[in-house]
Amino acid sequence: MGRKWNNIKEKKASKDANTSRVYAKFGVEIYVAAKKGEPDPEANRALKVVLERAKTYNVPKAIIDRALDKAKGASDENYVELRYEGFGPNGSMVIVDALTNNVNRTASAVRAAFSKNGGNMGVNGSVAYMFDATAVIGVTGKTVDEVIELLIEAEVDVRDVVEEDESVIVYADPEQFHAVQEAFKRAGVTEFAVAELTMIPQTYVTLPEESVASFEKMIEALEDLEDVQQVYHNVDFEE
């Protein structure tokens, strides 16, 4: 289970190194979530998830407020949620989630990022079935036993609780994201090392050495696209 956390942690570290890009993507995601329902996180579950995630990336309040104000205002800018699936070398699989106001532009850019770096687009459903949608909540200052106890007391069912790099990581169904966080908050925990809704592969592959650089370049090219919010893959670089 530690491998999963390490991959998520590396992904987060990569995002932390590109803060302006990350903040812009969160601004769009917050706007879209707020437009879908009430611009109040207490009345809009999807918005609350995005805001909790934004906290772990230290997204400035000004950016959050700007996105919420835009959603409350007269803006009629519409975004479409898209998922692309594709393949890289040696059985590697990639999922790309995007928010876009120009479907043709995004599709063309994602396809180019795949094809120019040794990958290829797959049909809808060709990859996603090999990944599990998962809520990942991480905290420090607690032991595994303490976390299990507080989850039991809160009557929250989760998939697993593990200790990794001085953090305790909870893996749960996405529907349990808020329940897990609320259980921690009732126990006095207000800061989270990680609070993500992610796609975790059921199996991992290791790339041959000669394919690693091109695969990393493909993932970077996908993540650099303005409309792409998340990129998931099943490559384990640590084996």
What can be said about this structure in brief?
The protein is of the alpha+beta class and 239 residues long.
Number of strands: 8
Query: What's the domain count?
Result: 3
Assign the CATH topology of the largest domain.
Alpha-Beta Plaits
- Let me know the largest β-sheet: 4 strands, antiparallel
**Terminal residue distance:** 14 Å
Tell me which CATH architecture of the largest domain applies here: 2-Layer Sandwich
Order of H and E elements:
HHHHEEHEEHEEHEHE
Radius of gyration: 18 Å
Q: What best-fitting shape do the alpha-carbon axes yield? A: globular
- Please list the strands of the largest sheet in the order they lie side by side: 3-1-2-8
Number of helices: 8
Q: Bin the helical content.
A: 40-55%
Which segments are poorly predicted (pLDDT under 50) over 5 or more consecutive residues?
none
Q: Structural class of the secondary structure composition?
A: alpha+beta
Could you describe the 3D structure shown?
With 239 residues, this protein is an alpha+beta fold. The protein has three domains: 2-72, Arc Repressor Mutant, subunit A, CATH 1.10.10.200; 80-129 and 202-233, Alpha-Beta Plaits (2-Layer Sandwich), CATH 3.30.70; 131-201, 2-Layer Sandwich (Alpha-Beta Plaits), CATH 3.30.70. Helix content is 44%, strand content 22%. The protein contains eight helices and eight strands. It has helices spanning 2-16, 19-36, 45-56, 61-72, 103-115, 144-153, 177-186, 209-224, and strands spanning 80-87, 93-100, 120-121, 131-139, 160-164, 167-172, 194-201, 228-233. A four-stranded antiparallel β-sheet has the order 3-1-2-8. A four-stranded antiparallel β-sheet has the order 5-6-4-7, sandwiched between helices. The chain is globular. 35% of the residues are buried. The mean pLDDT is 90. It is found in: Cytoplasm. GO terms for molecular function: DNA binding. Belongs to the TACO1 family. YeeN subfamily. Its main location: cytoplasm. This is Probable transcriptional regulatory protein H7B90_29690.
